[in-house]
Specification:
- The protein has 168 residues and is an alpha+beta fold.
- Helices cover 43% and strands 16% of the residues.
- The chain has a 3-stranded antiparallel beta sheet with strand order 1-6-5. A 3-stranded mixed beta sheet has the order 2-3-4.
- A hairpin with a 5-residue loop joins β5 and β6.
- The mean pLDDT is 92.
- The structure holds adenosine monophosphate.
- The site of adenosine monophosphate (AMP) has 14 residues, from β3, β6 and α8.
- Adenosine monophosphate (AMP) binds next to β3, β6 and α8.
């Protein structure tokens, strides 16, 4: 369980570490692959969210997923860019990897170990934004610099006998 004082401290910054949907590059699942290719090349992000027409979060698309479809046996084909849609290649994460509660610091920290960013949705599955590892690390940085301005950190007194044994 997360130490409640640390959880409270991190939550003070929750508005800062959410990048809101309106500034997150995304593509629609009905877009042609060529459009997603252009967007990803332009924004220079490795992976971006995929939404449906009602702004529900559907999954992710990356340049690697698109180029994989363009690889023929002995050449690179541009044809899939016109013929396939984003829906044909979208990576759908399981529901455990989607954040619906910004207060769930434990889950967020756990997932950010393996993912550079996490999608955030509301109760109806509408895309709200992303949490990036970078923004979260900024909050963590603040925590390690400022925790002692809000709390007295006092080491727990070890019983003499166990202190003398030293580390195993
Ligand atoms: P960063 O920590 O800023 O390097 O972001 C990590 C990843 O989050 C990026 O590689 C993208 O996949 C995604 N990301 C960050 N910011 C945005 C954004 N504004 N729009 C779309 N994707 C983003």
């Amino acid at each position: 369980m997360i130490i409640p004082e640390l959880q409270r401290f991190l939550l003070q910054n929750s508005e800062h570490y959410l990048i809101p949907a309106d500034v997150v590059a995304n593509v629609n699942m009905d877009n042609r692959l060529g459009h997603a290719f252009l967007v990803l090349t332009k924004v220079r992000y490795a992976k971006i969210p995929v939404l449906d027409n009602e702004s529900h979060f559907i999954g992710f698309i990356s340049l690697a997923m698109i180029t994989d479809k363009m690889l023929a046996l002995d050449h690179v084909s541009l044809e899939p860019l016109d013929h396939l849609k984003v829906a044909d290649v979208v990576e759908r994460p399981d529901s455990d990897s989607i954040i619906s509660d910004l207060v769930d610091i434990e889950k967020i920290l756990h997932l950010l170990v393996d993912n550079p960013f996490l999608p955030v949705v509301d109760d109806d599955g509408i895309f709200v934004g992303i949490i990036t590892r970078r923004e979260y690390m900024k909050s963590f940085n603040e925590l390690v610099h400022n925790l002692n301005k809000e709390y007295d950190l006092v080491p727990i007194q070890q019983p003499v006998s166990s202190a003398m044994k030293g580390p195993k």
